[in-house]
From TrEMBL:
It is found in: Cytoplasm. Its main location: cytoplasm. The lineage of its organism: Bacteria, Pseudomonadati, Bacteroidota, Cytophagia, Cytophagales. One of its GO terms (cellular component) is cytosol. Pfam families: TIM. This is Triosephosphate isomerase. It comes from Hymenobacter oligotrophus. CDD domains: TIM.
Amino acid sequence: MRKNIVAGNWKMNMTLQDGQALVSEIVNMVQDEATGSDVEVVIAPPFPLLPIVGRLLPEGGRIHLGAQNCHQKESGAFTGEVSAKLLASVGAEYVILGHSERRQYFGEDDELLSQKLKAALAAGLRPIFCVGESLETREREETFNFIASQLKNGLFHLSNEEFERVVIAYEPIWAIGTGKTATSQQAQEVHAFIREQIARAYDAEAALNTTILYGGSANAQNARELFSQPDVDGGLIGGASLKSRDFTDIIKSF
């Protein structure tokens, strides 16, 4: 079923001590304040912090542990990489795949991401699959064709049963870490388009039940307007997830 989700991507930030303090503050705030019981929260720290952060999350609660990436192979001689199986073994439930920074800085393409999706699903993880266009693509008015290609080549090879476990995140690259944010109308337009593509690739029920998040400089000030759009089901939050009050206020935006 379609869920409202707010996921915090810490990226390559936080020390052990800082991460412990931050997640403890978030847990206390979410438990103590009226943050809406229908909102699922995901925290995705750097790899070394996963077990520590996981132990600080209430068991059976609505705050879940996520990872920022995984390798496409289950095991092997891949120095410096982390398998989906290993992530699941330390308590991760979600994994972010296809983030624009992975695509841009590490050359991850649709073919590789399709393999990572399979690996994540085989390990029992829920992928948060990211799509989004650059400023140049938007200015050329090729946003929809570009995102349709990302969906088709990277995601739509999954079976109906596999696809049911996927969350999609739309992150306009031009709005990540820049302070710029897509307007609520721009976000809604692309989210609705993504839902249309899902209906064509699978069926109307799959489109209706898929959670689609917005990522791109979402913060405590603009989250309420973004989340009020009919096809925006939450956010993949970067910088604002590193501040407990801002992150909790975003969760409360629902």
